[in-house]
Design brief:
By secondary structure, the chain is α/β, with parallel strands linked by helices. Helix content is 48%, strand content 15%. It has a six-stranded parallel beta sheet with strand order 1-2-3-4-5-6.
Length: 183
């Protein structure tokens, strides 16, 4: 991501943080070292933690996440909407975005309950001034509903599957070829 940024692309990277990593004080040093070695702008790094990881030890999670935020990184709650965390934690933890679980996106076109849940989560994000990102978008119908709900971002096989660095570079080159405005 740092190399692509050096080429003028505004890209960020999300990194999953396991519950065991969040419980270790070494996490902060590991992130600091990775930022220093890579040269990545800290604001371009989003650390993704699950709801269940932050509620295992809320006080320690809050402390570690606050220290990580001081480094300048972004924090996302991953797979949001499937755990048992109280919504009050959204005020407590220094979170920037909610990544809505794919299971909630899967039934969007067929289920009023899924659509209602998605609406609620996007509104919750908006109320807390958090970005919302829907995971697992696989159909144009799902995308249309998410756009109608004003979900901020999306990811899924509708856009692309997992890509190796060379494939990302080809995708960026194609995008550059179709860009009309200077960077």
């Amino acid at each position: 991501a740092a190399a692509w940024q050096a080429q003028g692309h505004k890209l960020g990277v999300g990194v999953n943080v396991a519950a065991q990593q969040l419980e270790r004080d070494e996490l902060v040093a590991d992130v600091r070292r990775a930022l220093n070695v890579s040269g990545l702008d800290p604001e371009s790094l989003t650390l993704e933690v699950t709801e269940t990881a932050v509620v295992r030890d809320p006080a320690e999670s809050e402390r570690r996440l606050a220290v990580l935020k001081q480094l300048g990184v972004r924090i996302a709650i991953d797979d949001f909407g499937t755990g048992a965390s109280p919504f009050a934690y959204l005020r407590r933890f220094p979170v920037d975005s909610l990544k809505i679980d794919p299971s909630l996106v899967e039934g969007l076109a067929d289920s009023q309950e899924s659509a209602a849940m998605l609406h609620m989560l996007v509104e919750l994000g908006r109320a807390f001034n958090l970005d919302t990102l829907a995971q697992g978008i696989e159909s144009p119908a799902q995308l249309e509903i998410l756009q109608h709900e004003h979900c901020d971002y999306g990811q899924g096989f509708l856009f692309a599957g997992p890509l190796d660095p060379e494939s990302v570079e080809r995708l960026l080159a194609e995008a550059d070829a179709h860009t009309l405005t200077p960077r």
